[in-house]
Amino acid sequence: MFLVINGKDYADLPDGMSVAELVTHLGLPEKKMAIELNRAVISKSAYDNVMLRDNDKLEIIHFIGGG
Amino acid sequence: MDDDKLIIAGREFSSRLIIGTGKYKDYAENAAALTASGADMVTVAVRRVNINNPNEPMLVDFINPNETMFLPNTAGCFTGDDAVRTLRLAREAGGWSLVKLEVLSNVHLYPDMEETLKSLKLLVADGFDVMVYCTDDPVYCQKLEEAGAAAIMPLAAPIGSGLGLLNPTNIRLVKEAVKLPVIVDAGLGTASEAAAAMELGCDGIIANTAIAGADDPIRMAHAFKHAVIAGRQAYLAGRIKPKTYAVPSSPLTGLI
User: Fold this and answer.
1) Given a cut of 70, is residue B1 above it in pLDDT?
2) Domain total of chain B
3) Cα separation values, A42 from A54, B24, B73, B183, Å
4) Out of B36-40, B169-173, B174-178, B250-254, least confident range
5) Where are the domains of chain A?
6) Is A67 part of the contact surface with chain B (CB cutoff 8 Å)?
């Protein structure tokens, strides 16, 4: 499966993953993180049910230091 | 004196100082400065997770969002659409509706007020409580209040410049023009300037570079804490009217 995550191409990810499975696959810490799929925010409660498709674009953000 | 709380969008804060979390040597120093500052709110930025190194140090490991209010900002957003998109993600990440809107321009990072007002309206319609970084134009500040802002946050000087309170007259006019809390955000260089802003009647201060960039950030955080308290108390106490000539403090009668 081909995904664009945070502006970078990821060409050979496993097919048929949910958002939750992608988070696990990438080894991301879930605390205080948010995901946008094709410009729509996905609520954490929906991670298990939202399935990813080829060419989906994701933004995965968290809080860092700022003014 | 302890019941003089800062109230923003119905939330109560015991400190009138808000500190940033940018530009510190590391998050540990940032956390120590937070403790020294006595602040109970910090501004934070929203950025992409580093997918290639998910285990790098995280802000939330050093500053606990259950104890300190995180105020997500839109720094780096140059359009209203980007700002709204960023804050929708921040709300999902943190679960907070209180946010700091800043839509900047390419002119010395001055706020783009047209885009700021436009995105404020979108955010208010979306249920956010929005603290708005803005110019010190009292007319535009009134427009922000009418559009449903939660706090008005005019700059003291250009972001990160440390030039201090450049236009105290305008800050005072802003305070007089709106009913909302007025928080001076950006441009302060040292503690006395925070005190001066508070003496004008401002409700709070945001300081990032002035603290993080000091030789000893933790000591400067301590200094800002006391400056904000001193300025607030002086404002509430009511200063004397300046007089042109000397007036003796000791009685002139009963001299030996």
Assistant:
1) no
2) 1
3) 17, 32, 20, 33
4) B250-254
5) 3-62
6) yes
Q: Which residues in chain A are closer than 8 Å to B60, comparing Cβ atoms?
A: 31-32, 63
Instruction: Determine the distance in angstroms separating the CA of B249 from the nearest CA of chain A, rounded to an integer.
Output: 45
For residue B188, pLDDT over 90 is answered with: yes
Does any domain span residue B99?
yes
State how far the Cα of B232 lies from the Cα of A15, in Å rounded to an integer: 60
**CATH match for A3-62 among 3.40.30.10, 3.40.630.10, 3.10.20.30, 3.40.50.300:** 3.10.20.30
Taking Cα atoms as reference points, which of B213, B200, B212, B165 lies closest to residue B186?
A: B165
| Residues in chain A closer than 8 A to B43 (CB atoms) | 66-67
For chain B, the helix, strand and coil percentages under 3-state DSSP, each to the nearest 5? 35, 20, 45
Which among B52, B87, B92 is the top mutation candidate for probing chain A, defined by the most A β-carbons within 10 Å of its own β-carbon?
B92
pTM above 0.95, yes or no: no
- Specify the pLDDT at position A28: 86
Q: So what's the pLDDT on residue B53? A: 82
Among B24, B26, B29, B48, the strongest candidate for a mutation testing the A interface, having the largest count of A CBs within 10 A, is: B48
Q: Which residues of chain A have pLDDT under 70?
A: none
**Shortest alpha-carbon distance between residue A51 and chain B (Å):** 19
Does some domain include residue B243? no
